[in-house]
UniProtKB/TrEMBL annotation:
<dbReference type="InterPro" id="IPR007607">
    <property type="entry name" value="BacA/B"/>
</dbReference>
<protein>
    <submittedName>
        <fullName>Cytoplasmic protein</fullName>
    </submittedName>
</protein>
<comment type="similarity">
    <text>Belongs to the bactofilin family.</text>
</comment>
């Protein structure tokens, strides 16, 4: 049996259900759990239940009050999720605010990300800004500090690289920075980072860093204009 489509133009509301495609172009409210192949928001939307979608594309503003699961998640506008978010491939160009945990395969961040809980993905790629109040755990972490201050309580991964991004044509560096309590991984390189503790096999502290303690197994290097209060080979 072919699934129907749900389109809300102007102002309207609908119950939940199982749909092929959902489009909100005006102001729309969906009052119960929903599943769909495609969910696109161009206007302002509210989904009061859980959302499960093949792809979720946000060009306007959406408030999601339940749990969210989407194979492909693209945020060009503003998305607020009260609970947990799962996305296999997540591209954030606008703003995403998560009240619970966020998990999936990859986050590609060029906008803003705020997470009250943990962030667990295979690859975390960012040249935007983020505020993660729990653990950021990824196999590969690649952060380009472009502007503003990013914050995470604890960061873990196999390869962690934090660099300040060059501006147009590489003429000068941007002014982004990172603050963390603990950073732990196998291969770690950080710039313009303030952290209490960094632990790793191979640790390189680049320019502009203020680090309390570095614990390393194999290699350690510190730039001249970086500050490391104490380093221990373990």
């Amino acid at each position: 049996m072919e699934k129907g489509n749900l389109k809300i133009f102007g102002s309207g509301s609908s119950g939940g259900g199982d749909f092929n495609k959902i489009t909100i172009s005006g102001e729309g409210t969906i009052t119960d759990d929903l599943t769909c192949q495609v969910f696109k928001v161009y206007g302002t939307g509210v989904a009061m239940g859980d959302v499960e979608a093949g792809s979720l594309d946000i060009y306007g503003t959406i408030d999601l009050q339940g749990n969210v699961k989407s194979e492909i998640l693209k945020v060009y506008g503003t998305m607020s999720a009260n609970n947990d978010v799962y996305g296999n491939a997540m591209k954030i160009r606008g703003s995403l605010d998560v009240g619970g945990n966020i998990s999936g395969e990859e986050i590609n961040l060029k906008g803003g990300l705020s997470v009250k809980g943990d962030c667990e993905v295979e690859h975390f790629l960012s040249d935007g800004t983020f505020d993660i109040r729990g653990l950021l755990n990824a196999e590969k972490v690649n952060i380009e500090l472009k502007y503003g201050k990013s914050f995470v309580i604890e960061m873990g991964g196999e390869e962690i690289q934090v660099k300040r991004k060059s501006s147009f044509l590489g003429l000068n560096k941007q002014n982004g920075s990172l603050e963390a309590d603990t950073i732990e991984g196998d291969h770690i390189y950080v710039e313009y980072t303030k952290a209490e503790v960094i632990r790793g096999k191979k640790v390189e502290i680049g320019p502009g860093c203020e680090i309390g303690l570095v614990e390393y197994n194999e290699q350690f290097h510190c730039a001249k204009d970086a500050s490391v209060k104490k380093q221990i080979k373990i």
